[in-house]
Design a protein that fits this description.
The structure is a single chain. With about 525 residues, the chain is α/β, with parallel strands linked by helices. The chain is built from 19 helices and 16 strands. It has helices at about 5, 10-20, 65-70, 110-120, 130-140, 170-185, 195-200, 205-230, 290-295, 315-320, 340-345, 350-355, 380-390, 395-405, 415-425, 445-455, 475-490, 505, 515-525; strands spanning about 35, 50-55, 85-90, 100, 125-130, 150-155, 190-195, 235-240, 265-270, 285, 325-330, 360-365, 430-435, 460-470, 495-500, 530. The strands form two sheets. The protein has an eight-stranded mixed sheet, sandwiched between helices.
Length: about 525
């Protein structure tokens, strides 16, 4: 569907989104739009004992909103005791009082962090709060809490800013301070750190800010290189996925999403007077990082790790590193083409020097290499998971897509439980989640499958609460997706879109409870721009 056609649609809520665009609003921060009836009463509000399916598939950004709707004694802002029949597509947090349609198959055992900890080596993880869950929960194989010899340092990302493009440096300087402190400290033989800037700022359509973010990371990288050289540490530089190295779609519009490109892997060994030059494989994938790091530490790779060490010569493997610093340059992809390549356009003397001077490899970080559908882009969750796991982990998206294909989705016990409750008690069913063709948070195809299931089960009151603003979509794509949902509801003769709101409000993970409250009030009370449908 072309955007021009949307102006001629007969879906009032879609027209309202298009009107919001004309006032300068964008999908991600779209203010709540609420459907009302002819009397002005909000349609499809979440009420006591209703049924809800939160069909997002990522998890960490969905926790705050889920807590506000389900947790008894929730006190971050005023809420009702709704006693909902609440189902989440996957497990967002083990302590949430909800049913899970596709439960976790359990934490990944013997990840890099666990193996290092069990070997008696102290490992410290350093990141901004924006990426704390990635170097913690995901890199540890989706395991909550720390291992015995693991320490985490979380530097607060900038607060009280409307957008990170205002401060593209973010808190990288403070992350570096923590890294340098631990490089000096002999108690920490393994340091893992994440610079968030390129990925986080790269999702914002502001080229100047993106260039500043890249250059800020390179500047901090220079400080770490100098410290590693001075303290005879071995530095490994890599990334979890690409982002800004492919800044445009083929039609010339800006693409703020992730990419399918490979990421760098560099070993800069300063551990002896003469720089060690290990012989590296030139290509690999993220699953090869953990086995390589264990080789460098002289720790035997566990059987579960099917990744392969990138070190080729036995001599390199025999030299155990006393201090290993692993830097994850979040979102830093490698692409030969210079056109539309923000990494190539930025001034990155420190990275460029490492790349020329030291052995390096290109690692696959997307598609089936990180447990996702073939030819799909990478993301931070899959990237960090595979960096730590050292093996391919089939992600929930693939499991769910397969369940839809073979019909198991429609027999899912949790889905049937909440829908049967809605039918028996004549209560509403609410389908809440991201509306996008492809997002790390979910897929419109999963919503459509739930709508088909609701129709098969004879449900009459079905309401969709659409979250829009998938990063990497073309501008104003939200209206297109909401229109597709309305068309599907019409074709099935079941359901309607009751709420549309930007993901900025609904999917906060930084405890900005005012954003979560705005979403809650739209869903429960109908607060927002009211549109008669």
């Amino acid at each position: 569907m072309k955007k021009d056609d949307l102006f001629n649609n007969n879906f009032p809520i879609v027209t309202a989104i298009m009107d919001a665009y004309q006032t300068g609003q964008e999908d991600e921060a779209l203010e709540p739009i609420v459907a009302v009836d002819s009397a002005g009463n909000p349609v499809g509000r979440i009420q006591e004992e209703d049924s809800i399916i939160f069909y997002d598939i990522r998890g960490e950004r969905e926790i705050q909103l889920t807590k506000s709707l389900t947790v008894e004694g929730f006190n971050h802002f005023p809420v009702q005791n709704l006693r909902l029949n609440f189902v989440t597509m996957i497990e967002y947090n083990s302590n949430l009082p909800v049913k899970v349609a596709f439960p976790s198959e359990g934490p990944v055992k013997n990840t890099f962090t666990e193996v290092v900890s069990n070997a008696g080596k102290k490992i410290v993880k350093i990141s901004e709060s924006e990426k704390a869950v990635h170097v913690g929960f995901f890199m540890n194989g989706k395991k909550d809490g720390n291992f015995e010899n693991e320490e985490r340092i979380v530097v607060q990302s900038p607060q009280n800013v409307a957008s990170y493009d205002i401060v593209p440096e973010m808190s990288a300087g403070k992350v570096t301070e923590e890294i340098l402190s631990k490089i000096k400290d002999s108690a920490y033989p393994v340091i893992v750190a994440n610079f968030a800037n390129v990925d986080v700022v790269g999702h914002i359509e502001n080229q100047g800010a993106v260039l500043k973010a890249i250059e800020a990371v390179d500047h901090e990288l220079g400080k770490v290189i100098e410290a590693c050289s001075r303290h005879k540490a071995t530095l490994v530089v890599t990334a979890d996925h690409g982002t800004v190295e492919e800044w445009y779609y083929p039609d010339g519009t800006i693409d703020t999403g992730h990419t399918k490109n490979s990421v760098p892997f560099i070993i800069a060994d300063f551990s002896s007077a003469s720089i060690q030059v290990p012989d590296l494989e030139r290509e690999g994938e993220l699953t090869d990082v953990a086995p390589t790091l264990l080789d460098m530490l002289g720790i035997k790779k566990p059987l579960e790790m099917t990744g392969t060490s990138l070190l080729k010569n036995k001599a390199a493997k025999a030299i155990q590193k006393e201090k290993l610093v692993v830097l994850i340059l979040d979102g830093w992809g490698i692409r030969k083409e210079k056109q539309g390549n923000m990494i190539a356009l930025a001034k990155t003397p420190n990275f460029d020097n490492l790349w020329v001077r030291f052995p390096h490899a290109l690692l696959k970080s997307s598609g089936d290499a990180v447990g996702m559908p073939d030819k799909t882009v990478g993301n931070s969750e899959a990237g960090h998971l595979h960096l730590g796991a050292g093996r391919r982990i089939l992600l929930e998206r693939v499991r769910i897509d397969e369940a839809i294909k073979n019909g198991e989705f429609y027999r899912n016990e949790a889905f049937r439980w909440t829908m049967e409750n809605a039918a028996k008690e004549n209560q509403a069913l609410h389908l809440l989640g991201i509306v996008s063709h492809y997002s790390s948070h979910g897929s419109i195809s999963h919503l459509f499958a739930l709508l088909r299931m609701a129709k098969e089960m004879g449900l009459k009151r079905v309401y969709v609460h659409a979250l829009i603003g998938r990063r990497g979509e073309k501008p104003e794509s939200g209206a297109i997706y909401v229109s597709k949902v309305e068309e599907m509801c019409r074709s099935l003769s079941v359901g309607c879109v009751a709420t549309v709101i930007g993901r900025y409000w609904a999917l906060d993970r930084e405890e900005n409870w005012d954003r979560t409250e705005k979403t809650y009030r739209a869903l429960v009370y109908g607060d927002g721009m009211k549109i008669q449908t």
